C-alpha cells in the first residue's frame, strides 16, 4: 500500500528466545530482509517509542490475547486500530475495549472480509429485487477430520466466535439481526458438535477435552420478519457460497467463492505453498479491499463501511446467543 509506511512488527512468540529459541528459517529470512528496509522487529510493544505521527496498529493475535494487545496499542498512542475478528473473547471484553478507545479518541475497525466480498454483494443485490426472498450463507473450510483437535484448541473461542463470526456480522449489517431483534432461532439438523482431546494435553496423565462444532446450521428470523440462514462446515472444502431463494423456497441463484477461475488460481498457489491453509489464498483479495477501506478511513477521518466496532459487538453477542442455542 503506497499510502502506508510500516514502522514495526511485534511478534511475541517467534521473537521470544525463551518461548521459541529456533524460529522457522522462513521467519528469520523475513526479519533479515525487512529489517534492512528500516522496519523494527520486537517481541513487545513496550520496546517501541511512543507513536508521534498518526499510526494504525493491525492486531492479529490470538483472540484471548487481543484485549491486552489492544490496550497496549491505545496507550502507546495509536490513532486507529484494525482488529482481527472477533476482536475479543467475550462481549464485556469488547465493550470495555470500545470504551477505552472512545475516551482517547481512537478509531477501531474489525476485520470482516465477508462484508466486502463480491459473492455476498451479488447475492444481496439479487435478494433486494425479489419479494419475500431468503438468503442462505454457507461458509466452508478445508480441514481434515484428523486436524479438528488442533483446530478446536487453537480457536478456543469456539466456531461461532471464530469461523462463523463473518456470517453473523453479515446478519447484523444487512439483515438487522441482533439478540434483541430475534423472533425465532431454528437449529437445523446438519449441526454437529464434538468433544475432542486437546493435542497439547494428549500425552499427559490428565488429558483435557474441548467441545466445539464441526458443523453448524440455523435459520434466524427477526421480529419484523426479515432474516437469513447460515451454515458452516470446518471440513466442507474450499468453496463457500450464498444462495438466494424465492418465497416458495426455490433457489434462484447460487453465488460461489472462489469461482472456477479463482479456484484454479488457489490450487496453483496451494501447490506452490502446501503448508498454507487454502482459505488464506481464497480470502486474500477481500482482505486487500477491506484493509484499503480501513487505511483510507484512518487517513481521511471518515468511517469505513460495515466494519465498525459496534457491528463486532452485536456479532459477538449473536455468537454467544447462537453457541448456547446450537449446543442445546
Please characterize this protein's 3D structure.
- The strands form three sheets. Strands 6, 7, 8, 9, 10, 11 and 12 form a seven-stranded mixed beta sheet that branches. The protein has a three-stranded parallel beta sheet with strand order 3-4-5, with helices on both faces.
- The mean pLDDT is 93.
- Helix 3 links the parallel strand 4 and strand 5 (107-111).
- By secondary structure, it is an alpha/beta fold.
- The relative contact order is 0.16.
- It is globular.
- The chain has nine helices and twelve strands.
- It has helices at residues 25-35, 66-75, 91-103, 118-128, 148-154, 165-175, 260-272, 278-300, 309-327; strands spanning 8-10, 40-42, 56-59, 80-84, 107-111, 134-140, 182-187, 192-197, 209-222, 227-233, 240-245, 251-257.
- It folds into two domains: 8-112, Rossmann fold (3-Layer(aba) Sandwich); 114-286 and 308-327, Dihydrodipicolinate Reductase, domain 2 (2-Layer Sandwich).
Based on the model shown, name its key terms.
single chain; 328 residues; alpha/beta; Rossmann fold; Dihydrodipicolinate Reductase, domain 2; 2 domains; seven-stranded mixed beta sheet; 9 helices; 22% strand
Amino acid at each position: 500500500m503506497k499510502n502506508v509506511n510500516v514502522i514495526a512488527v511485534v511478534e511475541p512468540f517467534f521473537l521470544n528466545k525463551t518461548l521459541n529459541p529456533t524460529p522457522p528459517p522462513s521467519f528469520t529470512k523475513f526479519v533479515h530482509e525487512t529489517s534492512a528496509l528500516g522496519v523494527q522487529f520486537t517481541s513487545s510493544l513496550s520496546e517501541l517509542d511512543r507513536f508521534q505521527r498518526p499510526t494504525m496498529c493491525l492486531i492479529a493475535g490470538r483472540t484471548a490475547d487481543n484485549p491486552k494487545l489492544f490496550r497496549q496499542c491505545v496507550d502507546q498512542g495509536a490513532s486507529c486500530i484494525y482488529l482481527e475478528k472477533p476482536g475479543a473473547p467475550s462481549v464485556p471484553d469488547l465493550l470495555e475495549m470500545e470504551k477505552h478507545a472512545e475516551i482517547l479518541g481512537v478509531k477501531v475497525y474489525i476485520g470482516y472480509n465477508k462484508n466486502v466480498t463480491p459473492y455476498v454483494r451479488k447475492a444481496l443485490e439479487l435478494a433486494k429485487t425479489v419479494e419475500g426472498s431468503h438468503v442462505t450463507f454457507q461458509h466452508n473450510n478445508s480441514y481434515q477430520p484428523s486436524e479438528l483437535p488442533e483446530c478446536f484448541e487453537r480457536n478456543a473461542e469456539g466456531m461461532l466466535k471464530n469461523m462463523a463470526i463473518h456470517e453473523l456480522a453479515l446478519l447484523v449489517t444487512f439483515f438487522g439481526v441482533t439478540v434483541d431483534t430475534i423472533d425465532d432461532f431454528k437449529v437445523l439438523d446438519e449441526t454437529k458438535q464434538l468433544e475432542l482431546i486437546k493435542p497439547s494435553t494428549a500425552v499427559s496423565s490428565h488429558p483435557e477435552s474441548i467441545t466445539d462444532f464441526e458443523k453448524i446450521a440455523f435459520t434466524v428470523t427477526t421480529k419484523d420478519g426479515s432474516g437469513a440462514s447460515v451454515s458452516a462446515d470446518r471440513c466442507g472444502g474450499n468453496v463457500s457460497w450464498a444462495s438466494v431463494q424465492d418465497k416458495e423456497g426455490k433457489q434462484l441463484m447460487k453465488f460461489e467463492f472462489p469461482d472456477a477461475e479463482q479456484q484454479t488460481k488457489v490450487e496453483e498457489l496451494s501447490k506452490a505453498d502446501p503448508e498454507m491453509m487454502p482459505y488464506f489464498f481464497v480470502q486474500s483479495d477481500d482482505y486487500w479491499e477491506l484493509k484499503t477501506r480501513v487505511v483510507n478511513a484512518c487517513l481521511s477521518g471518515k468511517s469505513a463501511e460495515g466494519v465498525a466496532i459496534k457491528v463486532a459487538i452485536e456479532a459477538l453477542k449473536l455468537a454467544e446467543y447462537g453457541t448456547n442455542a446450537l449446543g442445546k
